[in-house]
Amino acid sequence: MTLPEHIRISESPGADLKDFLNKNSYSAVALLTDNHTALHCYPVIRHALPQHIHVTIPAGEVHKTLDTCAEVWKYLTEARLDRRSVLIVLGGGMPGDLGGFCAATFKRGIDFILVPTTLLAMADASIGGKLGIDFMSYKNQIGLFCQPALTLLSAAFLSTLPEAELRSGYAEILKHALISEPAWWDELTARPWKQHNWQIQIEKSALLKWRVVSEDPHEVGIRKILNAGHTLGHAIESWFLACNRPVLHGEAVAAGLAAESIIARDEGLLSSHLSRQIIRYITDVFGKLHWNSHDTASIVQLCFQDKKNTGKKIRAALLKEIGQTMWDYEVSPERITAALEEYRQL
Ligand SMILES: NC(=O)c1ccc[n+]([C@@H]2O[C@H](COP(=O)([O-])OP(=O)(O)OC[C@H]3O[C@@H](n4cnc5c(N)ncnc54)[C@H](O)[C@@H]3O)[C@@H](O)[C@H]2O)c1
């Protein structure tokens, strides 16, 4: 399987954007950035863009809100964009989710182009058509599925990305390797993580994600394997956020992958050897997240709020082997408590 026509690997994103815009007679071009990508990434493509309007939103997850959408819609309205306009979103997963959502709902939907600028967005968030915003402090509470007209994947933007953000995106690549094939996992673990060829890893990740989401676009079955590490990862992320000690999404996912590998081992799915290998590699690269024993129960409670649960049961995607994942696997709170405690005491 190859990437579909609308997802392209790009060595010169400016030229490729120009080419796409020339071939599509849009009535107007709008560009959305956050304040960091306006500074670091806009100069990479600016020369290649035709006349356009530029709207900048504040960076950071706290701005992935309806208020920010209102600002964007206001700007597009005042600039008199019609239904044949296009919105280019230049940024990480936050502007990508929000900008795509704004475009997909503006005048019942205009075309949008995603140009992801973080490793996380290139390897994961920009593929699959999930768009949305946070609402009443629930992540991605409002949104829809809609595919962009074009996604341009270029590692060229990574040179300005802070290392912690790069490593956060790496967690999703690790997850993709774990759920797809041992050879990829071996390749990743065989060399220092910072020395990977990101363009190659992005392409592999995008292909894996596309393969899975095109088989199950609305996440009723196999797409749930992409949630590996995320049931505990989201709970850990939410707990740290609630304590005013926010951690990056990928740091929480990495801890989630390690702790879920303990659950998979305890359920008799994953061998002790593989579980140990996963934990060792993840803690080498990401270090460990720290909380006190009496806080473990709060993290377990947060697992009940996961969108993937049905009824009052906690469900996770657990590895059986590298490349084999069981989704919708029911996990008891006791198993989660034991796994979080074992991780905590590593
Ligand atoms: N739609 C999906 O399928 C999907 C999947 C995973 C995550 N997400 C969403 O993605 C978001 C997280 O994405 P993210 O980690 O990319 O966060 P982000 O977009 O907030 O970017 C992280 C930080 O890096 C900065 N930045 C971005 N590119 C830069 C560059 N090239 N140089 C310097 N700084 C740069 C940003 O301004 C921001 O401060 C979350 O909102 C999450 O819900 C969506």
3D architecture notes:
With 346 residues, this protein is of the alpha/beta class. It folds into 2 domains: 7-160, Rossmann fold; 163-344, Dehydroquinate synthase-like, alpha domain. The chain contains 14 helices and 10 strands. Strands 1-8-5-4-2-3 form a 6-stranded parallel β-sheet, sandwiched between helices. Strands 6-7 form a two-stranded antiparallel sheet. It has a two-stranded antiparallel sheet with strand order 9-10. Helix 7 packs across helix 9. The longest helix is centred in the middle third of the chain and has 18 residues, at 163-180. The chain is globular. Bound molecules: nicotinamide-adenine-dinucleotide. Nicotinamide-adenine-dinucleotide is lined by residues 34, 36-37, 40-41, 59-61, 64, 91-95, 97, 117-118, 120-121, 124-125, 128, 130, 139-140, 157, 160-161, 165, 168, 249. Residues 34, 36-37, 40-41, 59-61, 64, 91-95, 97, 117-118, 120-121, 124-125, 128, 130, 139-140, 157, 160-161, 165, 168, 249 line the site of nicotinamide-adenine-dinucleotide.
